Amino acid sequence: MFMKKVILVLSVCAALIAVWGCKQENTNVKQLECARKISVEVGLPTALAAEQNSFIVSDFKDAKGMIKVFDMETGKLKYQLAPKGEAKDEVLEASNFELLKDNGETLLYVYDLEKGKLLKYDLGNLANNGNPTQIDKLKSNDRYYCINNIGKGYAALGVFENHKFDLLNDSLKKYSTYGSYLPNKEKVSNKMIDAMANFGRSVVSSDKKILVNFSFAAGVLRFYDIKDGTLIHRKDAVVKPMNYKVKNDDYQLQDGLGFLDAAISDNYVYALYSGEKENFNAPMPTASYVYKYDYQGNLKDIYHLDKATFTLAVKNDDSQLFTIVDDPNSKIFVYNLK
User: Fold this and answer.
1) With contact defined as beta carbons under 8 Å apart, do 214 and 220 qualify?
2) What are the φ and ψ backbone dihedral angles of 128, each rounded to 5 degrees?
3) pLDDT tens digits for 321-337?
């Protein structure tokens, strides 16, 4: 059972883990109503991002290109990237992607978990060149489920016994480790089970100043400052601490799941929160509460969405929030924040 779960954790895209929403007590919750719905052609969307006039969607099922770029006004497909395959510029599983700024350019990074390969695209030049501008491959057999650029190198998440991150240089060679897992309410001696319970994701601000990490099993956002290619733990923003028990070489959550997804604007962090028990019979369980924090980890607002979702994105100027909803076909819901 234990080994089966290790394999499962490493092989599934983190974005497919989804949950239901509940609010934090004694907090003023602002209701958000969808202002506009935009139909998009996706088979199995797993992640969403927004940049200028485009939506970027990860489509787990489309072999023609697992990363799709849509027009923000019409929903029309503009570009399709990262086709499925074994070739150098193809991927087998687009585990995570991120948008970052570099010398005025917007770069799209796509990580292939199966091949340990990182593809970089120039998002502003896709009309002239839809191929990756750079392709790097891991220099070891380590399997990471999420890799984030931190300016000088990368921070990688995996199932590690004694630390949270592997730190990689610009050519994806490991040179150090950093961080610890969230403390559990009950002390756990099995380090691998603790590592699996802390399975989650990281997101980085487009200017590469902060990294925010969350584990699906806890309502905790960990804020890190990024400096000279390393991380400095700033603060834990806690809605619900880690609380699980070990049974039959597995972990069982006692208080429901935590954060599902997060997105960072130029000023704030938006995180999709659950707090409910996972329903294993649901095809795509969702959450409907969004917690908004400043870069220092201070809670600023809580929003309740009129339609539950599994992923979110935000405009850099904090004017709009976006989600993907099956309604009944995939639609991007647009919420006005200003």
Assistant:
1) yes
2) -95, -30
3) 999 998 888 999 999 99
